[in-house]
Amino acid sequence: QVQLVESGGGVVQPGGSLRLSCAASGSIFGINAMGWYRQAPGKERDLVAAITSGGRPTYADSVKGRCTISRDNAKNTVYLQINSLKPENTAVYYCNVVQYGTFWYWGQGTQITVSS
Q1: For a pLDDT cut of 70, what percent of the chain falls above it?
Q2: Is 13 exposed, middle or buried (0-12, 13-18, 19+ CB in 10 A)?
Q3: Radius of gyration for the alpha carbons in the chain, expressed in angstroms and rounded
Q4: Three-state SS at 18
């Protein structure tokens, strides 16, 4: 089992920035991709960004140019820097890791609210 602990959410004004962190612990061998998803009220959970164990990132089209995902393999931690936040980015952001290409684990979620 892999446990994920997220931090960094909060309330931010439009145009602001936040940095999310997610630390993995437990049986962490074989972790491949690490990433972030978000779920707005009444909507499905969608990919924001993901990064492979080799450091190759993937971004949703809606966040390209405004997000940077990174990971520290030594700390088993993934980060998401989000800039130029918009009210429509308000959602619960979930950390995700994939182990052995098969097992998916989710964090408890961290709320980001973009409001003036």
Answers
A1: 100
A2: exposed
A3: 13
A4: strand
Q: How many CB atoms lie within 10 A of CB 2?
A: 20
Buried-exposed string 47-75: b where 16+ CB fall within 10 A, e elsewhere: ebbbbeeeeeeebeeebeeebbbebeeee
DSSP string, 49-61: EEE-TT--EEE-G
Residue 101, pLDDT > 90, answer no
- Supply 78's token pair: 């993934």
Token pair belonging to 95: 């950390």
Give me the amino acid identity at 54.
G
How far is the C-alpha of 85 from the C-alpha of 65, rounded, in Å? 12
Q: Residue 33 pLDDT > 90, yes or no?
A: yes
pLDDT of residue 18: 97
| CB-CB contact of 34 with 27 (8 Å) | no
Strand order in the sheet with 18-26: 2-7, 18-26, 77-82, 67-72
